[in-house]
UniProtKB/TrEMBL annotation:
Record field: transmembrane: none
Active site: 35
Single GO biological process annotation from the record: cellular response to oxidative stress
Keyword hit for Transmembrane: no
GO MF terms held by the record: peroxidase activity
Listed name of the protein: Glutathione peroxidase
Upper taxonomic lineage: Bacteria, Bacillati, Actinomycetota, Actinomycetes, Streptosporangiales
Organism: Actinomadura logoneensis
Record-stated family: Belongs to the glutathione peroxidase family.
């Protein structure tokens, strides 16, 4: 089973159909609207714009587990993201990324180490996982790693599907 086989709903209901990303590189990010790291939405959107035509997408996954920093409804989250940061990338339903109610998507992701060797629970909002076109986890980045940092950009470029 890969990330592309996991069932998860979209932000506004209905299936997010992760299978549609098979063959693409995907940056999965647990997001929140009221966090000190929320300005990372701007960099995530720039990545989306820069690489979308080359088989890449950002996938935002709202989560309210970190000090209640994503309290909004689906409509509030969507409105905030689009009007404040011009977000066009897809978003899933709000889920739990840690604990006994951890969504199966994150069950597949958290075993991957980041550059410092951290595995396991998500530490904070905006932790990033780069998924390769075959559905394997290619890289994990800490919440503080900016979306347009050299290490994220290099990993994305290396993971893009062959054209």
């Amino acid at each position: 089973m890969t990330v592309f086989d996991v069932e998860i709903d979209g932000l506004r209901g209905g299936s997010a159909d992760l299978g549609q990303y098979r063959g693409k590189a995907v940056l999965v990010v647990n997001v929140a609207s009221k966090c000190g790291l929320t300005p990372q939405y701007a960099g995530l959107e720039r990545l989306q714009e820069r690489y979308a035509e080359r088989g890449f997408t950002v996938l935002g996954v709202p989560c309210n587990q970190f000090m209640g920093q994503e309290p909004g409804t689906a409509e509030e989250i969507e409105t905030f993201c689009s009007t404040t940061y011009g977000v066009t990338f897809p978003m899933t339903e709000k889920i739990e990324v840690n604990g006994e109610n951890r969504h199966p998507l994150y069950g597949l992701l958290v075993g991957t180490p980041d550059a410092e060797g951290h595995t396991g629970d998500i530490r904070w909002n905006f932790e990033k996982f780069l998924i390769a076109p075959d559905g394997t986890v290619a890289a994990r980045f800490s919440p503080q790693t900016e979306p347009e940092s050299a290490e994220v950009v290099a990993a994305v470029e290396k993971t893009l599907p062959a054209s």
